[in-house]
Amino acid sequence: MKETEKIADKIKEASTVKEAANIIYKELKKLTGSKCCYVAYIDPENGDSVAITFTHVTSQCNYYESIKEARFKRPKNGKYGGLLGYSIDTGKSFFTNNPINHPAAHGTPKGHKPIKKFLSVAVKDKNRILGQIVLGDPPIDYTIEDLKISEEIGQAYAIILQKFYNGKIPLR
After folding, report:
1. What is the pTM assigned to this prediction?
2. Structural domains in the chain (count)
3. Could you tell me where the DSSP H helices lie in the chain?
4. Does 140 map to a domain?
5. How are beta strands 70-72 and 49-54 bridged, if at all?
6. CA 71, CA 164: separation in Å to the nearest integer?
7. CATH number of the structural domain spanning residue 15
8. How far is CA 169 from CA 9, 44, 129, 134, 161, in A?
9. From CA 90, how far away is CA 79, in angstroms rounded?
């Protein structure tokens, strides 16, 4: 059994979304060498993107940690925009080793540490976006293999999020 399958099995056995997110955070950082990770779900009530496990990259992260989430409100037009919102908006996972020049980039938010390499997975089922996994700043460039590994893990996370949306497991 390959490493990603073992990790996916651990994720699928999680009893909460938070537990699954913590496994993803730890294991994907290790597999890809990423310094940063962000694991989010889409709030089924309002469409907000809600990170429940994340690396501290802004001065506000301590506050987010204290309230146990970083919530990004869904804009009225339905598009999150920017590099962070790109995979949620398009449903397509991607990576860039030059984020500043990506077409969706619109600058680094105030107080946010610059990210030099960026990978984002749209976590989805057949009909909708369920969540997102974002990685950043490995010591070497991201490759298509990193994206494939991250998408495999994202498929396991999608199963957990479906259980959450169907009331079978709690958020925390």
Report:
1. 0.90
2. 1
3. 3-12, 17-32, 61-67, 82-90, 144-165
4. yes
5. antiparallel
6. 18
7. 3.30.450.40
8. 16, 14, 19, 23, 9
9. 9
Which tokens belong to 110?
Answer: 């105030």
Identify the residue whose tokens are 């919530």.
71
Tokens for 46, please give them: 């309002």
Asked if the structure places residue 171 within a domain, the reply is no
Domain, as residue range, for 107: 3-165
147 backbone dihedrals φ, ψ, rounded to 5°: -65, -45
pLDDT digit string (tens) for the chain, length 172 residues: 689 999 999 999 999 999 999 999 999 999 999 998 999 999 999 999 998 987 655 555 454 555 566 777 887 888 888 888 899 999 999 999 998 886 777 666 566 577 899 999 999 998 899 999 999 999 999 999 999 999 999 999 999 999 999 999 999 9
The answer to whether residues 84 and 96 touch, using CB atoms and an 8 Å cutoff, is: no
Q: Other CB atoms closer than 10 Å to residue 166's CB: what's the count?
A: 8
Instruction: Name the amino acid, one letter, at 124.
Output: K
Note whether residue 172 is domain-resident: no
CB atoms within 10 A of CB 36: 20
20 in a structural domain = yes
